[in-house]
Automatic annotation (TrEMBL):
The organism of origin for this protein: Cephus cinctus (Wheat stem sawfly)
GO annotation, cellular component aspect: ESCRT II complex
Keywords, comma-separated and alphabetical: Cytoplasm, Protein transport, Transport
An example Gene Ontology biological process: macroautophagy
Subcellular location per the Swiss-Prot or TrEMBL entry: Cytoplasm
Gene Ontology terms, MF aspect: protein homodimerization activity; structural molecule activity
Family: Belongs to the VPS25 family.
Designated name of the protein: Vacuolar protein-sorting-associated protein 25
Alphabetical list of PANTHER family matching this protein: VACUOLAR PROTEIN SORTING-ASSOCIATED PROTEIN VPS25 (PTHR13149), VACUOLAR PROTEIN-SORTING-ASSOCIATED PROTEIN 25 (PTHR13149:SF0)
């Protein structure tokens, strides 16, 4: 796993408490959003379960004995959702899908690779896209399957792809 370069705020105890002053709070939330997206990009993870955040080094800095409250993590997730980088997976808003590119950006990244490699008019399995030999050098290699399908749906809505579901397999035809 790649080493995380924690920002200076991560070692600053007040960073782990939601600040009351509006301008300070806005900067704090922006820093948390950026740190969260970077952490999930580097660790290639996509699921945040608010009930389990205290076991995550992102939300629990043991070196200064500080951790975010579950309520503050929820605020950060909602901020990410408002900017297109996360969505709740359940009605109780305890499980979240996080993506370091918006779904539209992921769709464009994948579509550009498909176009550049001559796969327009072809069918690819989702496994080929995220785990295939042809994509090992691509940012979407190893992408969470749920994020991939949601990104492909953005291409489907713009008539540049069609998702194909058969048995336990998923594929996509690109136009």
């Amino acid at each position: 796993m790649t080493e995380i370069n924690w920002p200076w705020q991560y070692s600053f105890p007040p960073f782990f408490t939601l600040q009351p002053h509006a301008e300070t709070k806005a900067k704090q939330l922006a820093a948390w959003k950026s740190l969260t997206l970077e952490y999930y990009r580097i660790t290639n993870q996509a699921i945040v379960d608010i009930r389990e955040v205290h076991s995550s080094p992102l939300f629990n800095n043991v070196s200064i004995n500080r951790k975010l409250s579950s309520d503050m993590v929820l605020v950060i997730m909602e901020e990410l959702e408002n900017s297109g980088y996360a969505c709740a997976l359940d009605k109780s808003r305890q499980r979240w899908l996080v993506y370091w590119h918006t779904l539209q950006e992921w769709g464009e990244i994948i579509y550009n690779w498909v176009r550049d490699n001559g796969f327009i008019g072809s069918v690819c399995t989702t496994f080929e896209l995220t785990d295939g030999e042809n994509t090992t050098d691509q940012e979407f290699h190893g992408l969470d399957p749920e994020v991939l399908v949601r990104a492909l749906r953005t291409l489907e809505s713009s008539n540049r792809a069609e998702l194909i579901m058969f048995d336990d397999n998923q594929g996509v035809k690109f136009f």
